[in-house]
Design brief:
Number of strands of chain B: 12
Order of helices and strands of chain A: EEHEEHEEHHEEHEEEEHHHHHEEEEHEE
Strand content of chain B: 25-35%
CATH class of chain A: Alpha Beta
Largest sheet of chain A: 7 strands, antiparallel
Largest sheet of chain B: 11 strands, mixed
Order of helices and strands of chain B: EHEEEEEEEEEHHEE
Number of helices of chain B: 3
Strand order of the largest sheet of chain B: 1-2-3-4-5-6-7-8-9-11-10
Chains: A alpha+beta, B alpha/beta, C alpha/beta
CATH architecture of chain A: 4-Layer Sandwich
Helix content of chain B: 10-25%
CATH topology of one domain in chain B: Pectate Lyase C-like
Structural class of chain B: alpha/beta
CATH architecture of one domain in chain B: 3 Solenoid
Radius of gyration of chain A: 19 Å
CATH class of one domain in chain B: Mainly Beta
Distance between the termini of chain A: 40 Å
Largest interface: B-C, 48 and 45 residues
Strand content of chain A: 25-35%
Strand order of the largest sheet of chain A: 8-3-10-1-16-15-17
CATH topology of chain A: Glutamine Phosphoribosylpyrophosphate, subunit 1, domain 1
CATH superfamily of one domain in chain B: Glutamate synthase, alpha subunit, C-terminal domain
Shape of chain B: globular
Number of helices of chain A: 11
Oligomer: heterotrimer
Number of strands of chain A: 18
CATH superfamily of chain A: Aminohydrolase, N-terminal nucleophile (Ntn) domain
Number of domains of chain A: 1
Chain lengths: ~375, ~240, ~500
């Protein structure tokens, strides 16, 4: 049987996210509790979390989380890292033994700063430099996989039910202003640690539910711009699309949503100006980045979370607010479990992005 | 008259300027390689100092272009009407597929001059060449007039090889006393003691433009080439 | 022996019990097959004149007629079949080049039929196109990804001109001259009604059809017939014809007999003279020259119209397309070797060029490998026979499809492949007024609208089955295709997996 990443692998899933817009921090415990309610949406073949604001002491450095299948892969990777970065701090990520989580790889964390000379000689923007280094490790070093690479954020994932993965990584010990979580129900894999979600690129993290029908049209387009879809998952291609539109092209998240989950032509025609002209233009410019088929995603980024569902609303998404706290989830019950008393609960329309950001957004998006 | 200094300008800028200019006469100076000058224009008179780029006066529709210097390839491509005057020599495929208007060249032209020129009703294209021409003059010619005066001094034949190949309309006049050798089968050649009226008036126009003596040219002997048939390839096919 | 007697290919069978000797067959046949014998009071048939166009069969009020293949046969020979033998006889008789019409009828593989389309089951839903939106609208042209904002922060429209289509199907180039005035009228009206385009071919634009400008693509071919400023301006887009699938590498030749007064006026050439299109454009001997023609057309139309470059699918199609994509052209049209024609040398039609499926797959992949796929849109034709072919073409990477033969079939054509005779009984490939008037534009345009509307429904059904609700999400979505009955090499060239192989 082929290893994950060598074949296309769509999956069904559960997603949930929370942000405290005042910037106050919470541990990962709440996410673990919430996702437990949606246990039946996962099948034990993958779970994961992304936490934002969790590394305040190293907030200026890229936090790389890596899986190694072997010591040799680690040696090779560290040699590569040393050629391209200054390692500010590195250590094995602390985990606890959980009976249901087995066969874990070596899991390491590095706080990195690009070597100034290397960076300037590359003629690349700093983030592009880092993104390319991540791609090279993942594509070229056998048995090594970078699964988190942003600043002051981190992804924690593995094979198992998400609540078990959360305990495995001791997420009760991390504090962040925003968290997302994913429970996976893949249709096509024995489960691989690197293939679990969230999928991350720099500070973007994406959790996703659904199997998109536009996958190969999206993939073949985005690969023209230097991305390589090695995992063959929907989450991976959606992350690249967002990175391309937002980081590289400078679109706002709303504009990117009008590409990814564009309104139907007939809907656009009924919109007032300037929305009508702008949305028409975006569809004419990026038609191959329209994502069709069911999806609901939560995008995490420095300072905020965005929920976006497909334009036919083929997957459920619930948003809720309580004071400074804002929640996004596949199911309302997951939110109620950790916050029974809500100010507002609503379901966003298909294709309508919901964006929750820190009142004073920090960092760079 | 509007004066445009083309130095450092790309063709898009230059041509936009020419199109939008509200003067009827424009002089372009320091022209160097800008293509498509005068494309599709129906009015205006453009004078060019320098070396314009390819496809000068393509689809020209009535405007007048004078060039003080040589021109490159595909001058007057698919020209419909108007006049192009070249005080110099012209490159390959001059007057390709032109249907109307006139091109006057003081010097020589390259290969495939007047290829596929055709006449239609009042549109009758004419190309008058002062010097000599390269091969395939008037290839596929379907109408109009090509006149070669042969005032060249390099001692070479007045036309290159395969003159009038595939010709199925129009006329070619060559100022020479003997029928050129190895003409293609589609061409009928005859010696003339004097030019017909229309051709003679083209010679006069050419002389007036370039200040040459018309008497000598009008009293010379000419060879006229015309097609054998309107349908040169009719017998070639068998229905299957 | 002066000429070899070749027995007729077809026989007219008349049911004497049904025949009422109404003589309609006689009036309908421009080939003069049917005649009335006053002595016997019966109808007779001259089989040697029959082209099997079925006009008489369709119009016989009592259905007394059928046309069958002649049973007369030469000694059986798998190598030398009757047709091949007869071709040798014809050439020995005449010394002529064999001339045929319409697309290559030979039994080479048709890859469309070896491709199968996916559908959703369980893991994602299919969509019901009758009740949920199912978008077939698209835009053809360059798609720049450059973002520039105005002072108010709005994204500026920096896109080169694009062509909007309501359905991914256009009518391919067929010139006035090769087909009739009424056929053009049908195509123009149908294009307008359907929100798509028809293509004038290289024969100019008839003055009556300027009113369909918004739905007209005008062609500039090597002969430049009918090309002048007003023609270029009277179009939604301009197509440079470099080649045609039915006869790659050779020019065109409309015989003088088809240059009637009206055709002559449209082509802007004298009546009765042959209209010869040179094999190449004589201002294009190299790829940089193509750029020159593309840009001169853009200059002539003030950069307001997309320019299409049409090429025949040939061996190095991918490299050619890459060159075109960098020439300033907005759209590439690729015509496969099964494309139709009003006349082509038989040997060229049947032996030159490559299948459109393979050319398309290679072109699309090559443009993506070079990162220039968005510089151009791709239209493919030659031949697209059904909505399934359209779906497969788009999944392989096309933006839209040209249909020519299918459109003519809708107008009555029976693929008798005798267009070159100019005696089309269906009023399509003829300039004879009495034949042309048989094709009623009012009826014909509705039949074209019916055809494309039906295909659109079928395309939507297949898209819905795949869970795709925009044609744009199908473009290049090769995971939606699987192959059967193909070699590994063929699958590799098509970029498609074998049926049964997982994603």
């Amino acid at each position: 049987m082929m290893k994950e990443g060598q074949f296309r692998n769509p999956s069904g899933c559960a997603v949930v996210g929370v942000i405290d817009r005042s910037g106050s921090k919470m541990t990962g415990e709440g996410m673990i509790e919430a996702i437990t309610v949606m246990h039946d949406r996962s099948n034990g073949l993958g779970g994961g979390f992304a936490g934002y604001g969790i590394y305040p002491h190293y907030s200026e450095f890229y936090a790389f989380h890596l899986f190694y299948d072997s010591k040799q892969a680690q040696t090779e990777t560290e040699a590569f890292i040393c050629r391209h970065f200054e390692i500010v701090y590195s250590s094995e990520i602390q985990t606890r033994k959980v009976p249901t989580v087995t066969d874990e790889p070596l899991i390491f964390r590095y706080f990195l700063a690009p070597l100034p000379q290397k960076l300037s000689r590359s003629h690349l923007d700093e983030r592009e430099y880092v993104a390319r280094c991540v791609n090279r490790i993942n594509a070229q070093i056998d048995g090594a996989y970078v699964f988190s690479s942003g600043k002051n954020m981190g992804i924690f994932k593995g094979v198992g039910y998400p609540e078990d993965i959360g305990r495995f990584y001791r997420l009760e010990e991390y504090e962040g202003y925003a968290w997302t979580c994913h429970g996976r129900y893949p249709t096509n894999t024995p489960g691989w640690w690197g293939g679990s979600h969230p999928f991350g690129l720099l500070d973007f993290s994406v959790v996703h539910n659904g199997e998109i029908s536009s996958y190969d049209a999206n993939r073949r387009y985005i690969e023209m711009f230097g991305y390589k879809c090695t995992l063959h998952t929907d989450t991976e291609v959606i992350t690249y699309i967002i990175d391309f539109l937002v980081r590289r092209k400078g679109l706002t998240l709303e504009e990117a949503s009008h590409v990814i989950a564009a309104s139907f032509w007939s809907t656009i025609e009924g919109k007032p100006e300037p929305a009508k002209t702008q949305e028409t233009l975006l569809r004419r410019m990026f038609p191959s980045l329209l994502v069709t088929g069911p999806f609901s995603i939560i995008l995490g980024y420095t300072g905020g979370l965005m929920a976006l569902g497909d334009r036919l609303k083929l997957r459920s998404t619930v948003c809720a607010e309580k004071g400074d706290l804002a929640y996004i989830s596949s199911e309302e019950s997951a939110i109620r479990r950790i916050q029974p008393d809500l100010d507002r609960v609503y379901s966003p329309a298909g294709g309508e992005p919901v964006i929750y950001e820190l009142y004073q957004k920090g960092g760079d998006v | 008259m509007e004066r445009v200094n083309a130095e450092g300008m790309n063709y898009v800028q230059l041509n936009a300027l020419v199109r939008s200019c509200n003067q009827s006469e424009i002089r372009i100076v320091n022209c160097i390689g800008q293509r498509y000058i005068g494309t599709g224009l129906s009015d205006k008179k453009i004078t060019i100092d320098g070396t314009p780029g390819n496809a000068l006066g393509a689809y020209l529709n009535g405007a007048e272009i004078h060039v003080n210097g040589n021109v490159q390839e595909a001058t007057g491509d698919t020209m419909n009407d108007g006049t192009i005057v070249i005080a110099g020599s012209a490159g390959d495929a001059t007057g390709y597929a032109m249907r109307g208007g006139k091109i006057f060249v003081e010097g020589d032209v390259g290969y495939r001059c007047g290829i596929h020129i055709k006449a239609y009703r009042e549109n009758k294209p004419a190309i008058v060449i002062g010097g000599r021409t390269g091969s395939f003059l008037g290839e596929y010619q379907a109408g109009g007039t090509i006149l070669v005066l042969g005032l060249h001094t390099d001692g070479k034949p007045i036309v290159g090889n395969f003159c009038g190949t595939g010709m199925h309309g129009g006329e070619i006049f060559l100022r020479c006393s003997e029928i050129p050798p190895r003409l293609p089968a589609q061409v009928r050649a005859e010696k003339l003691s004097a030019l017909p009226k229309e051709a003679a008036s083209l010679v006069r126009e050419w002389c007036a433009l370039f200040g040459k003596d018309e008497r000598m040219l009008l009293s010379s002997s000419y060879v006229r080439l015309t097609p054998n048939s309107d349908n040169p390839y009719k017998q070639m096919y068998i229905a299957n | 022996m002066d000429k070899m007697y070749i027995s007729p290919e077809y026989e007219v069978i008349r049911d004497r019990d049904r025949c009422t000797v109404c003589r309609i067959c006689e009036r309908q046949c421009a080939n003069g097959v049917h005649a009335y014998n006053a002595e016997t009071g019966r109808m007779t048939a001259d089989n040697s004149r029959c082209v099997d166009c079925h006009r008489c069969v369709c119009y016989c009020p009592t259905h007394a007629l059928k046309i069958v293949r002649s049973q007369d046969t030469y000694p059986e020979n798998a190598n030398w079949d009757s047709r091949t033998i007869n071709e040798v006889y014809k050439q020995a008789d005449s010394g002529g080049v064999l001339l045929s019409s319409m697309g290559n009828p030979k039994p080479q593989p048709i890859f469309w039929d070896r491709l199968l389309v996916n559908a959703s089951q369980v893991t994602n839903p299919s969509i019901d196109p009758l009740r949920e939106p199912m978008e077939t609208r698209l835009w053809l042209g360059k798609r720049s990804t450059k973002i520039e904002r105005d002072a108010g922060g709005k994204i500026r429209d920096l896109l080169a001109p694009q062509l909007p289509l309501e359905v991914p199907i256009l009518f391919s180039a067929m010139s006035y001259g090769s087909i009739s005035y009424n056929a053009h009228a049908c195509l123009a009206r149908a294009a307008e009604a359907l929100g798509t385009y028809y293509n004038t071919g290289e024969g100019g634009l008839h003055k009556d059809f300027y009113k369909y400008s918004k739905n007209t693509i005008v062609q500039v071919a090597s002969g430049r017939f009918g090309v002048f400023q007003g023609y270029l301006e009277g179009a939604a887009a301009i197509e440079i014809k470099m080649g045609q699938g039915a006869k790659p590498g050779i020019g065109g030749h409309l015989p003088g007999m088809k240059i009637t007064e009206d055709v002559s006026e449209t082509r802007m050439i004298p009546r009765g003279t042959d209209a010869i299109s040179p094999a190449p454009h004589h201002d294009i001997y190299s790829i940089e020259d193509l750029r020159q023609l593309v840009c001169s057309l853009k200059e002539a139309t003030d950069y307001k119209k997309p320019v299409i470059v049409k090429v025949a699918a040939v061996h190095n199609a991918a490299a050619i397309a890459s060159g075109i994509a960098r020439s300033g052209a907005d759209i590439i049209a690729i015509d496969g070797y099964r494309g139709g024609t009003g006349a082509a040398p038989t040997r060229i039609r049947d032996n030159v060029g490559i299948p459109i499926e393979l050319a398309l797959a290679q072109v699309d992949q090559r443009l993506r490998d070079e990162g220039i796929r968005e510089e151009v849109s791709l239209i493919v034709g030659g031949s697209i026979r059904s909505s399934a072919d359209v779906v497969k073409a788009i999944a392989l990477g096309a933006d839209a499809c040209y249909i020519g033969t299918a459109a003519l079939l809708a107008l009555g054509c029976h693929l008798c492949r005798s267009c070159h005779t100019g005696l089309c009984n269906w009023g399509i490939a003829t300039q004879r007024p009495e034949l042309v008037e048989r094709l009623d534009p009012e009826v014909g345009y509705k039949r074209l609208v019916n055809l494309v509307t039906a295909w659109k429904h079928e395309i939507q059904e297949m898209m819905g089955g795949m869970g795709i609700n925009s044609i744009e999400a199908l473009r290049g979505n090769r995971l939606m295709l699987r192959g059967v009955g193909m070699t590994d090499r063929e699958l590799e060239l098509l970029g498609v997996r074998y049926a049964g192989e997982n994603m």
